[in-house]
Amino acid sequence: MSSEKNKAPLGVFDSGVGGLTVAREIAREMPCEEMVYLGDTARLPYGSKSPDTVRRFALEDADFLMSRGVKAIVVACNTATAFALPILQREMPVPVIGVLDAGVEAALQSTRNGRLGLIGTVGTVASQAYQKELKRRSPNIHVVARATPLLVPLIEEGWLDHPATKLVLKEYLESFLEQDVDTLLLACTHYPLLKPVISSILGEGVSLVDSSTTCALHLRRIMEEKNMVATRVARGKMDIYLTDQTENFESLARCIVPGEIRKISAAALVSRAF
Amino acid sequence: MSSEKNKAPLGVFDSGVGGLTVAREIAREMPCEEMVYLGDTARLPYGSKSPDTVRRFALEDADFLMSRGVKAIVVACNTATAFALPILQREMPVPVIGVLDAGVEAALQSTRNGRLGLIGTVGTVASQAYQKELKRRSPNIHVVARATPLLVPLIEEGWLDHPATKLVLKEYLESFLEQDVDTLLLACTHYPLLKPVISSILGEGVSLVDSSTTCALHLRRIMEEKNMVATRVARGKMDIYLTDQTENFESLARCIVPGEIRKISAAALVSRAF
User: Fold this and answer.
1) For tag attachment on chain B, is the N or C end more exposed, with fewer CB atoms within 10 Å?
2) What is the CATH number of the domain that holds A106?
3) Is A215 a catalytic residue?
4) Is A164 in contact with B171 (Cβ distance < 8 A)?
């Protein structure tokens, strides 16, 4: 692999800005890498949409990153990973890494009683992608999954500790307490922001696992294996592209990755026929 | 105006299927009309997105309806009305009617003390479109507006009477009670589904006004003035197009307009450059 190749940026995409939590972990693990981040804010959310539509959006997102010359693509969106990872890996000429493997690995390492809880969008849970991969790697695992579609809107309203958020979470999390899970996998990039209130409901006996940290480690391992790590000395920067630019998205982005952004620009995606 | 023209369908669009509440009222007022309904379910919601993006989406939606040969276009989405009605009226070669005028008229007829409340999406409220039109028609009116972004997700979760929905509404509606409004304008096509719980919080002294009924009357008046009403005897039917087809959207559509749907099909929109 030529060093020219290594200088190319890493590409990361998500339906919105939540995937920047994954990009932030990548920047911590591999600080010399340049990054191009695409948030498809004009069409978010992906979590309530059909598999075909999510696959088409994911391909268009990946096409955009390829047009920016990326050397690898990280799918920092659980719904897109669940529905589109295989087709992206087939169609893209660079390595494509999703958040699923990392989350599954972290959850299996965490559980002691073999009883796992999983929360995510309607699409992620209905796809069964997490449930199947957990069972494949650990056939005796017991998985309790629940779609929790109100959490992203509550987070975006900023109600991280509001009584209504607690009431919603109590209803969503009730079955996990009844089923005696000891680990809850947060299968959506937004959910880590609710860790304190989720912990207060589930108690200290339940570990909360999310995939952003393990995804970054997974990516670094793959980049090292393929000899694709950037070797410059200077710290890398991040170019953020959004399909819809609002003040809200931009300020949230600056809040998640302060000091690492070179610029935030508008992105025009090229449609794929469907 | 030739009778050929009159046989053309009416076009209605919304970001999703909520606008079918408006289409249903139009079918009641003008039962002989054929209708083409477009729900941009692949890109919903519009309420949190920027004015430029909402305008582009609205133009693409209207282009699609024009390609189906409609004789008039109803914008059954408050956010699209608030941001895009003037540009649609300039660019489309047929009459374009929004939900704003109808809602404003109904609210001004309802209030006795001149103190109005308004709830809608972030986009609708921030656009000031309703507030400006209310003030223009009735300069002494006092308007209290609040964006209520959690209501659509709660409705879509089916929690119409859930304790969490009541808690969210109590917080959202508090200021209307303090400010002594006697009429609340529901400036989003989804909100009429929450009328019972909103009434239970605000009490009988506050009238709830929505724009679907008055919008249909407004449309009929314009169609009559322009001599564009369909004169066939048979009852008209509705062709529904969705940019993303999920079971959830289709069953919700059948629930809102039972017995009036000819078919539900996928729609591919043509992108406008931005």
Assistant:
1) N
2) 3.40.50.1860
3) no
4) yes
A273 found inside a domain: no
Q: Please give the average per-residue pLDDT across B49-70, as a whole number.
A: 97
Which residues of chain A lie closer than 8 angstroms to B164, CB-CB?
150, 164, 167-168, 171
- Residue-wise pLDDT for A186-222, tens only, equals 999 889 889 999 999 999 999 999 888 789 999 999 9
Query: Who among A57, A248, A268 is closest to B274 (CB)?
Result: A268
- Same-domain pairing of B205 and B74: no
pTM assigned to the model:
0.91
Domain-embedded: residue B203: yes
The answer to whether residues B215 and B192 touch, using CB atoms and an 8 Å cutoff, is no
Contact assignment for B248 to A164 by CB distance below 8 Å: no
Number of domains, chain B: 2
* Half-sphere exposure (Cβ direction) of A118: Cα atoms closer than 13 Å: 32
Residues A106, A85 share a domain: no
- Residues B79, B141 share a domain: no
Catalytic residue among B32, B188, B215, B255: B188
Are residues A93 and A38 both part of a single domain? yes
Q: According to the model, what pLDDT value does residue A3 have?
A: 56
pLDDT tens digit string along B164-216? Answer: 999 999 999 999 999 999 999 999 988 988 999 999 999 999 999 988 878 99
Q: What are the pLDDT digits (tens) for B222-255? A: 999 999 999 777 889 999 999 999 888 888 888 8
Number of residues assigned to chain B: 274
- B111 and B240 assigned to the same domain: no
Cross-chain Cβ contact A157/B164 below 8 Å: no
Among A169, A193, A210, identify where a domain stops.
Answer: A210
Cβ separation B246–A50 shorter than 8 A: yes
The domain of A23 spans 3-98+213-266
Final residue belonging to a domain, choices B168, B193, B210: B210
Instruction: List CB contacts (< 8 A) between A265 and chain B.
Output: none
Within this chain, do residues A82 and A43 fall inside the same structural domain, yes or no?
A: yes
Which chain B residue is nearest to residue A271, measuring alpha carbons?
B271
Which residue out of A32, A188, A215, A255 is catalytically annotated?
A188
**B156·A163 Cβ contact <8 A:** no
Q: Respond yes or no on whether ipTM tops 0.90.
A: no
B77 is catalytic: yes
**Best residue in A40, A41, A46, A50 for a mutation probing chain B (most B CBs within 10 Å):** A50
- Residues A244, A162: one domain? no
